[in-house]
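[READ THE FOLD]
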Amino acid sequence: MSGLIVVGVDGSPTAQKAAQTAATLAAGIGARLHVICAYDRDRVAEVVGTGTDRWMLSTADEAAATAREVVRSLDVDGVEVTSAAATGKPGEALVGEAERHKATLIVVGNKRVQGITRVLGSIATTVAQHAPCDVYIAKTV
């Protein structure tokens, strides 16, 4: 099998585990791996400057850096890996990237949360309901 696996990361240990699971799956089936980090385009990550000069660092830059950092930490021998920042809430961003790149699989973690989405987690629930492809739930907790 070939194709593309999409996984989302946010810098957390659970997302790191999901990403490594995605990398292992990609190596096993001969797929490419696309690591994304979602961001909110309306949020400013940081305002920096010197003297009276000020500028805003985009959360897109921060998200792209997070995705690249995770890629560097993965054991991905023989796997073609790309990374990117993706706009939107994490679940929506994963589904959007999977649609845009015609992914064959999305990998999400089973991060525990409170309330109605407790069984899978809010991101996994959103992805499972709206994914254009198969979804793999990685045991991350």
